[in-house]
């Protein structure tokens, strides 16, 4: 679809940019992919932290809501920018100089991509496991791990199903924001209803819920929760509980971005707060810690699997039922596929904006005839397939979050600088003045959590002997610099060509 066809429909588009072909609802439903990431975390969190998991959910999710409010203001200030959270760093750090703005904007977008693109292989892998289990699909055979300390064995049937999910979800991404938002609406409705239903199910049998099961919001008996334990788990949480910000990725493609930003991000933040607080309270209140650990067997102990957790939760309320088994299985698959959709669409838009800003290679700024960032999305797809071959979601969490949490921290620090130095900038949405210094403080706190919690996180997410994943994350983040060098070489070559033409 060419620019003329978009313009015939009244869609704003320029010759090189993305189409403004959605609204706040499109941004909201695609952004739900961040909220559904609770599926992968809740079982592990309740198993290893007990009632304290709810305290961490409350504190860190509140920070996520605060982040959404800050992003709403930045989106209103720069409505033309695509890519959401990381793309604003390029603007907010300008008072510190162009070089600082370029590099922090570039590192932020690259780190954000590292954090979000991995959601696609992780959640397609989990969806494949649930799908194959539900429909009894098994081809036999397996491959991996890459090394005894890196990756895990992955079944051929799981890999093939996950690959199909990745490729199918890529199609609406490729066909533009309008179809992507339509597809996300279908998946989003199929996600919202089950999530809300899971929260309110105990109403049907109030006798199954007990506040005593929350253990006073403390750690399980016998768990020694020192400083390393808490900051390590807090780091793991941030890969999930802050992801409500995903809606911001699409504000630059909304027809009325300044208006749509505050609606989409406020709705996303508040719905996320509801789900991230209510769901763990209900699950732990019904099952109790002993009920959660009892979901496994002596030969196959419970390790945090979402399907086992939610089936056990529903069984405790209604008894064993084939209907609920299928309901839980299909709901998990739909929710996970929604997050796969955003992982390809959202993270790619940050790279696209970086290329438009002249920071990374021009190829990332290419768009197809549907006005979607073609090269950036293909780049995400190829690396998603590569990461899928690892077959170890927990290892991926650690090095992936070294990029994501860095991007979030930089965004909040940048917001604080923006409010302190450019508060006179005209914008239709201005948050209370105290949000500026608070954003700076929260951003610095997240930088400390990134540096300290990231180092210890592998001990609890994966096991002892895996702290090298922290360094892998830093190395991957540093790969931004070769990309920036490549762009400088492109511009240098252009200048040389122009000089030769002039001669």
Structure commentary:
- By secondary structure, the chain is mainly α.
- The protein has a single domain (3-502), classed as Amino acid/polyamine transporter I (Up-down Bundle), CATH 1.20.1740.
- The protein is built from 18 helices and two strands.
- The chain is globular, with a radius of gyration of 22 Å.
- It starts with a helix and ends with a helix.
- The model has no long low-confidence stretch (mean pLDDT 91).
Summarize the structure.
This protein has 503 residues and is mainly α.
Fraction of residues in β-strands: under 5%
> Looking at the chains present, what oligomeric state does this protein adopt?
single chain
How many β-strands, per DSSP? 2
CATH architecture: Up-down Bundle
Which class of secondary structure composition applies to the elements?
Answer: mainly alpha
Give the rounded overall mean pLDDT.
91
The portion of residues assigned to helices is 55-70%
Instruction: Give the end-to-end Cα distance, rounded to a whole number of Å.
Output: 40 Å
User: Given this structure, which CATH class is correct?
Assistant: Mainly Alpha
Q: What brief labels describe this structure?
A:
503 residues, globular, mainly alpha, two-stranded antiparallel ribbon, Amino acid/polyamine transporter I, 18 helices
Lay out the secondary structure.
Elements: H1 3-8, H2 24-35, H3 38-49, H4 52-77, H5 89-92, H6 98-117, H7 119-134, E1 142-143, E2 154-155, H8 156-174, H9 177-200, H10 227-241, H11 257-293, H12 306-318, H13 322-356, H14 374-388, H15 393-421, H16 435-461, H17 468-478, H18 480-502
Antiparallel strand pairs: 1-2
């Amino acid at each position: 679809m060419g620019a003329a066809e978009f313009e015939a429909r009244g869609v704003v588009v320029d010759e090189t940019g993305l189409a403004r072909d959605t609204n706040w609802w499109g941004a909201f439903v695609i952004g739900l992919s961040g909220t559904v990431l609770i599926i992968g975390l809740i079982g592990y969190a309740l198993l290893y932290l007990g009632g304290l998991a709810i305290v961490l959910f409350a504190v860190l999710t509140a920070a996520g809501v605060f982040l959404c409010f800050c992003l709403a203001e930045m989106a209103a200030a720069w409505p033309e920018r695509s890519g959401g959270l990381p793309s604003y760093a390029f603007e907010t750090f300008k008072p510190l100089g162009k070089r600082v703005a370029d590099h922090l904007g570039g590192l932020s977008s690259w780190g954000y991509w590292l954090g979000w693109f991995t959601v696609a292989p992780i959640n397609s892998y989990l969806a494949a496991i649930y799908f194959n289990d539900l429909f009894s699909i098994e081809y036999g055979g397996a491959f991996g791990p890459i090394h005894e300390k890196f990756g895990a064995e992955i079944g051929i049937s799981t890999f093939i199903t996950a690959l199909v999910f990745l490729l199918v979800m890529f199609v609406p991404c490729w066909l533009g924001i309008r179809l992507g938002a339509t597809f996300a609406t279908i998946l989003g409705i199929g996600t919202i209803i089950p999530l809300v239903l899971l929260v309110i199910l105990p109403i049907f049998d109030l006798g199954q819920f007990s506040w005593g099961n929350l253990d006073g919001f403390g750690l399980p008996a016998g768990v020694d929760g020192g400083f390393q334990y808490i900051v390590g788990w807090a780091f793991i949480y941030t890969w999930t509980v802050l992801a409500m910000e995903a809606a911001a990725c699409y504000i630059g493609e909304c027809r009325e971005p300044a208006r749509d930003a505050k609606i989409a991000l406020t709705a996303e933040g508040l719905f996320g707060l509801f789900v991230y607080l209510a769901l763990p309270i209900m699950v732990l209140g019904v099952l109790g810690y002993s009920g959660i650990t009892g979901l496994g067997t002596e030969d196959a102990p419970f390790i945090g699997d979402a399907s086992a957790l939610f089936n056990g939760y529903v069984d405790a309320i209604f008894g064993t039922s084939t209907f609920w088994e299928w309901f839980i299985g299909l709901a998990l698959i739909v929710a996970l596929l929604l997050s796969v959709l955003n992982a390809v669409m959202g993270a790619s838009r940050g790279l696209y904006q970086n290329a438009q800003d002249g920071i990374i290679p021009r190829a990332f700024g290419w768009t197809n005839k549907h006005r979607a960032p073609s090269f950036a999305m293909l780049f995400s797809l190829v690396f998603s397939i590569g990461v899928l071959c690892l077959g170890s979601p927990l290892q991926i969490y650690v090095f992936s979050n070294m990029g994501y949490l860095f991007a979030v921290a930089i965004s909040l620090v940048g917001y604080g600088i923006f409010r302190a130095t450019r508060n006179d900038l005209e914008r239709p949405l201005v948050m209370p003045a105290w949000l500026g210094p608070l954003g700076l403080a929260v951003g610095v706190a997240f930088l400390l959590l990134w540096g300290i919690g990231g180092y210890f996180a592998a001990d609890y997410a994966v096991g002892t002997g895996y702290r090298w994943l922290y360094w892998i994350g830093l190395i991957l983040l540093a790969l931004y610099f070769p990309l920036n060098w490549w762009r400088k070489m492109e511009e240098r070559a252009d200048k040389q060509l122009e000089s030769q033409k002039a001669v």
